[in-house]
Amino acid sequence: MTTTEQPPTDSMRRFDELLRADEKIEPRDWMPDEYRKTMIRQIAQHAHSEVIGQQPEGNWITRAPSLRRKAILMAKVQDEAGHGLYLYAAAETLGISRDELNQLLHTGRQKYSSIFNYPTLSWADIGAIGWLVDGAAITNQVMLTRTSYGPYARAMVRICKEESFHQRQGFEIMVTLTRGTDEQKAMAQDALDRWWWPSLAMFGPPDADSTHTEQSMAWKIKLETNDELRQKFVDMTVPQADHLGLRIPDPDLVWNEERGHYDFGEIDWDDFWQVVKGNGPCNRERIASKVRAWNDGAWVREAAAAHAERQRRRAAGNGGSNGRSSGRDRDTEVRR
Ligand SMILES: [Fe+2]
Ligand SMILES: [Fe+2]
Predict the structure, then answer these.
(1) Could you tell me the distance, in angstroms and rounded to a whole number, from the CA of residue 227 to the centre of ligand 1?
(2) What is the model's pLDDT at position 282?
(3) Mean per-residue pLDDT for 232-248?
């Protein structure tokens, strides 16, 4: 590994040693520019996905079929907002601000997972998203708890715990629907039919076409390839579909005794790239809602920043008087 900037050889050596010893790279450590850029791109894309991912499910909060379902869905959507915040904080340790990251997303220069550009047409979609989309996310993210960048790996530990709750709540919705009326069973099957292939595409292009995989594996950012993770997900999910009595919409899906894995059909990558390029069913709507929420929330950010600044000034001004202020002072501050 050499760069045109010619970093001190010691720094480069230390970076390589840390990777070799399976130790974490921390914000204080020297790292190659490309490593830093890759980490920013990946963590930002992940953070944006958590935040945008609230939209398709938020769509059903007001129409959840019972108070219990509503409370669970609200908690789940709120978890996703929290995941976004941990991840923005992890990205900030690499020297980029949350404001910059938001601008990059809003202007289309950074992406979020394409899965969130599909609409949620029925309540069963909320079950299918938890079961399949959160299920695919966990498959990918368990690996990331061991990724080489410390703040990202640590954020993933907590996120994975919450994702496994999300996956179970989705599966439980599917169990309830598939034990219900014929109409409910049909809803569950329809949701699986629509979410199956986009969920498989979540793992990214086949290894042979994946531009980032090789370098990311050398840097121990990725520990398993897209195809390996996709296979793991299929092997885990097919028995769950059998348990539900649902049919996976893939005529080529068959257990391969020799490989000890399921064989499955070809993903429609043209459709995938169309959605990545912005032509999915909901791309424009998702970004428009995100930008609107960002603009509507400007006063909250400004108020919080003004409050923090006032606290800082007060602390600096009271340095000689124990840092205490009377109740009256506080009232005056509030009214100003
Ligand atoms: Fe999440
Ligand atoms: Fe989740």
Answers:
(1) 22
(2) 94
(3) 98
